[in-house]
Amino acid sequence: AEVMKRGITAVPEDPRFVLGLAGLSERKGNFDEAIKIYDDYLASNPDSLLVINNIAVLLSEHKTDEKSLDRAVSMAEKLADTKQPALLDTLGWAYYKKGDLENAASVLSGVVEQSPDVPVFRYHLGMTYYKQGDIRAAKEILEKAVAEDYQYNGIDEARLVYEEITKE
Fold this sequence. Notes:
The chain is built from 10 helices and no strands. By secondary structure, it is an all-alpha fold. The chain is elongated, with a radius of gyration of 17 Å.
């Protein structure tokens, strides 16, 4: 952490030190600290899509209050013009977490179409279909998200929902 902080001081425009320091905070479960590190960097580098993405992910994954989820969507909407599936997935998942299932499904279906073999993308789309009540589509999408010994944030939920809907 100290090396990363010295790097940020020495080369403040280089995001690698910021990503490293924030990553350390995330691994320790200090999500508010990680968000602050990213926010500090974003203040002088407002167009950093990677940092914008990471803030939106942290807010979507680790906050449940309306203000945080509103901010997650607001941040993620800045990623809407990118063609990068991982960034668009963040947008779709932020919509999902906020409860905007229509926009979530629209964005996430395009993400899965672009990158059909990425299990976490399938998990996000499958959960969206599930919340929309489209059990057939959720089952189809989640089947591939849980088919192998994948590890991603949410795999346990994906497996539980998939088991639930395959019993029906």
